[in-house]
Amino acid sequence: QVQLVEFGGGLVQAGGSLRLSCAASGRTFSGYTMGWFRQAPGKEREFVAVISWSGGSTRYADSVKGRFTISRDSAKNTVYLQMNSLKPDDTAVYYCAADRRFLVTVASTYLYWGQGTQVTVSS
Questions:
Q1: 5 contact partners, CB below 8 Å, separation of at least 6
Q2: Direct distance between the N- and C-terminal alpha carbons of the chain, in angstroms, rounded to an integer
Q3: Using an 8 Å Cβ cutoff, are 80 and 21 in contact?
Q4: What string of pLDDT tens digits covers the 123 residues of the chain?
Q5: How far is CA 76 from the centre of its chain?
Q6: For residues 100 and 71, what is the distance between their CA atoms, to the nearest angstrom?
Q7: Do 24 and 98 contact (CB within 8 A), yes or no?
């Protein structure tokens, strides 16, 4: 079992920044691909970013490429999502997830999920 808890959501104006954190506990954190997903009201959960277990490989959704950065600190069992140049369309509940498979971007394939943190971007 892997337990995930997200932190860092909040209300920010368009153009601002937020950093989300996801703290992991339980099984060995370093062996897992870690992903960030988001879900806006009335929409399906969508892929945002993913990082490999080593931290050496990442992928981003086209909608956030160049604005968001995913990183991980294995010593702290934590994965981060730095979000810059935020837009109202980024408003959603953000979830982190963990899975053994390499750089998966499909939500349904992830085994472990956090409870989510709300990000609201005002115009």
A1: 22, 23, 114, 115
A2: 40
A3: yes
A4: 889 999 999 999 999 999 999 999 876 677 899 999 999 999 999 999 999 999 899 999 999 999 999 999 988 999 999 999 999 999 999 999 999 999 999 999 999 999 999 999 999
A5: 16
A6: 17
A7: yes
